[in-house]
Automatic annotation (TrEMBL):
Gene for this chain: mpl
Record GO terms (molecular function): ATP binding; UDP-N-acetylmuramate-L-alanyl-gamma-D-glutamyl-meso-2,6-diaminoheptanedioate ligase activity
InterPro entries the UniProt entry points to: Mpl, Mur-like_cat_sf, Mur_ligase_C, Mur_ligase_C_dom_sf, Mur_ligase_cen, Mur_ligase_N, MurCDEF_pg_biosynth
Domain Mur ligase C-terminal: residue ranges: 310-431
Residue ranges annotated for the Mur ligase central domain, each copy included: 108-288
EC number, as in UniProt: 6.3.2.45
Residues annotated to bind ATP: G110, T111, H112, G113, K114, T115, T116
Protein name: UDP-N-acetylmuramate--L-alanyl-gamma-D-glutamyl-meso-2,6-diaminoheptandioate ligase
Domain Mur ligase N-terminal catalytic span(s) in chain numbering: 2-100
Species per Swiss-Prot/TrEMBL record: Solimonas marina
Tagged with keyword ATP-binding: yes
Length: 447
């Protein structure tokens, strides 16, 4: 079967492409933009990616068009699909019908930590010999690819609350029908499609409704917003983490005692920095334990976890200055990432931020950004031309530590001028940020 994917370079759709290719289908795709790691993954798989959305990309007609949620009415390729009556479906629906049916799905939902937690969960099952399939919104470095079919009945999926497609406004995760689900945390996000937090909570409860009575919901016991979700109804086994009743960590993020139900279950050495990753670990442990992985095997597996590309990933070093890349694009994620890097070593932390997500560009979190950057020694913010708010004004509370630039080269100049040996430059964006990481390293190398 020939499958053509519209929006193939998105993290989720690139995973669909990888799985469809592994299943033996001929896969092609169209997209307006592409950047690593998904662009390099598709290239390595031999999947042809066509620039833009031209009707000619669909000639001759594929057997199925899989439509990403980046595609809207008015898109030339989509209009052609509709006018010609070509068969089409969404990515989540295709996955549900062709991959997830009949499998034990372990889904990871939450505003933050989905990618790292799902990658860790997949690795813990792999380490235990369970050979799971998975689809993660990034590239787990233990596997080198964002998605695979797997050989067992287990499938781990990053469960996103964003809408499915222009013709299906339900959250993606309602398609997955998990037997094990992690609810990591819940905050307001996706201001382009959700009017308020209550609307997101309702979607999370739709997910809860799909979990069978014999299934397990692993929930952050310290998150009041998730408590409200479960107060709407819960029909499954509930296991908590980050509270006294469930899975708990006593100690620093990278060295702590694991406690389950108030009893010691072992001592953990973790390769992951930050309190947020300690919580992610507890959630992954509780989910993997649900499918029979012993605690000792979980602790052993964690030690071999190599995290995910673009999650506090060190890109390089020049002139004694290290450059890190992270996907953080929400105030809470920004704050926890800065804190994690600060705790992980010595030297100043220079935070470099591109407010790129739809929510960020609309300004829904503008008033929270200054506080999220409070632990950075210096802050550099790219005032994109499509920002709907004044970055300098919104971030005035940062004070003299802040520099805002509307030009990328000017931003790089400011970072180079301010940096010194021993500094750690943390670049945060949910896009490629104009290739700033390598441009910055090249400038730093020049001295």
């Amino acid at each position: 079967m020939h499958i053509h994917i519209l929006g193939v370079c998105g993290t989720f759709m690139a995973g669909i492409a990888a799985i469809a290719r592994e299943a033996g289908h001929t896969v092609t795709g169209s997209d307006a933009n592409a950047w690593p790691p998904m662009s390099t993954q598709l290239e390595a798989l031999g999947i042809t990616v066509m620039q833009g959305y031209e009707p000619s990309h669909l000639q001759p007609a594929p057997d199925m068009v899989v439509v990403g949620n980046v595609v809207t009415r008015g898109n030339a390729a989509m209009e052609y699909v509709l006018n010609e009556g070509l068969p089409y479906t969404s990515g989540p629906q295709w996955l549900a019908e062709h991959v997830l049916q009949g499998r034990h799905v372990l889904a990871v939902a939450g505003t933050h930590g989905k990618t790292t937690t799902s990658a860790l969960l997949a690795w813990l099952l792999e380490h235990a010999g369970l050979e799971p399939g998975f689809l993660v919104g990034g590239v787990p470095q233990n596997f080198g690819i964002s998605a695979r079919l797997g050989t067992s009945r287990y499938f781990v999926i990053e469960a996103d609350e964003y809408d499915t497609a222009f013709f299906d406004k339900r959250s993606k995760f309602v398609h997955y029908r998990p037997r094990t689900v992690i609810l990591n945390n819940l905050e307001y996000d996706h201001a382009d499609i959700f009017p308020d937090l209550a609307a997101i909570e309702r979607q999370f409860h739709h997910l809860v409704r799909t979990v069978p009575g014999r299934g397990r919901i692993v929930v952050n016991g310290a998150d009041r917003n998730l408590s409200r979700v479960l107060e709407q109804g819960c029909w499954s086994e509930r296991v908590s983490f980050d509270d006294d009743a469930g899975w708990q960590a006593a100690g620093e993020p990278q060295a702590f005692e694991l406690r389950v139900g108030g009893k010691s279950a072992g001592f953990v050495h973790s390769p992951l920095a930050g309190r947020h990753n300690q919580s992610n670990t507890l959630a992954a442990f509780a989910a993997a334990h649900h499918v029979g992985v012993p605690v000792g095997t979980l602790i052993e597996g964690l030690a071999g976890f190599r995290s995910v590309k673009r999650r506090l990933e060190k890109i390089g070093e020049a002139g004694g200055i290290s450059v890190y890349d992270d996907f953080a694009h929400h105030p809470t994620a920004i704050a926890t990432t800065v804190d994690a890097l600060r705790r992980a070593g010595q030297g100043r932390v220079l935070a470099v931020l591109e407010p790129r997500s739809n929510t960020m560009r609309l300004g829904a979190h503008a008033h929270e950004l200054a506080n999220s950057l409070k632990d950075a020694d210096l802050c550099f913010v790219y005032a994109r031309p499509d920002l709907k708010w004044d970055a300098g004004k919104a971030l005035a509370a940062v004070g003299e530590r802040l520099q805002v630039a509307a030009d990328l080269d000017a931003l790089i100049d400011a970072i180079v001028a301010a940096s010194m040996p021993g500094d750690r430059v943390l670049v945060m964006s949910n896009g490629d940020f104009g290739g700033i990481h390598h441009k910055l390293l090249a400038r730093l190398q020049q001295g």
